[in-house]
Specification:
Order of helices and strands of chain A: EEEHEE
Shape of chain A: globular
Structural class of chain A: mainly beta
Helix content of chain A: under 10%
Strand order of the largest sheet of chain A: 3-2-1-4
Largest sheet of chain A: 4 strands, antiparallel
Oligomer: homohexamer
Distance between the termini of chain A: 35 Å
Number of helices of chain A: 1
Number of strands of chain A: 5
Radius of gyration of chain A: 13 Å
């Protein structure tokens, strides 16, 4: 299985802030932290927990740059 | 100046694939590569070039996870 | 510091609806109102308050049109 | 017909930069300019032309803020 | 009225999970279910209810593929 | 391997419009067509061809509704 999403950053979940409809999941990727907001339904369906190894997936069209 | 975007990844531009309307900019961030698609107008306005130090900016709502 | 985001609309915060994980921030930009949903963590990190001058930032790839 | 998109900005098309797959459409909204990147297929299906009255549509989850 | 959004999927609302700031709306489209997260303000402005006929709207730049 | 993306629509590629930087991929999903714009690099990396079985992936936060 391959994904068209150009950016795939593997790491470990260090924080889950669970909300009523959406939750924030924070992943340590090397020295960086990546925060993602996904539905709480997805957090439960994937049974995401602190310490899980996951890959953050980001479409190239969603990236901006600061110079 | 501060940005609400939760994910800010500093790195160096290693590739620019310039297109008619949009361009792909690839940034080396530590051991990872982040690809972003932005307008060619923005590439020109910011005068982006290989070797430039930039920060990739990603909104938390744009991040998905694979487990 | 320059941003690749093509759309930057300066205005004043007129409403903040704070939620458990995400919050809605409404900005008056001339005669228009721009609503943005960002993480509550970002609202707190930037210490956003009613009356603050901010700039709404929107990537060109996120804009659709109705005719 | 009503749309859930919170941000609807009416204006006039002042520029169309047509590309092979996507095109950039620039709309004058009061004193601001809004750039959107949509498929060239949509530009043709909607028969978008300079001078057309259109409404730019932006989902609240796509808006970031700079302070 | 026409929309530039390339993907328009008509269906019937089968579930609304109302949150403090955003809500999840699930629409049955033929044999598939489409989940959307929109502001709770929009759910109320459009007076969305289970059983309503709506059309899910998705911009082409937001679609990824798995092979 | 599981994805947090709530909307996963399996189908068959019926059209690929290849551009210099991004390409449009059209997938027949039952009676509907889903168009996605991804990087041409991804089209080549995944070796996407007409007739391929793929799954369109859409994050819930990217879905709007029309009523």
């Amino acid at each position: 299985m391959q994904l068209s999403g150009r950016n795939q950053l593997p790491g470990e979940i260090i924080e889950i802030k669970k909300g009523d409809v959406v939750s924030e999941v924070v992943v340590q990727v090397g020295e960086h932290r990546i925060s993602g907001v996904i539905t709480t339904t997805s957090v439960e369906n994937l049974n995401l927990k602190i310490g899980d190894r996951v890959t953050a997936l980001i479409k190239a069209t969603e990236v901006s740059f600061i110079k």
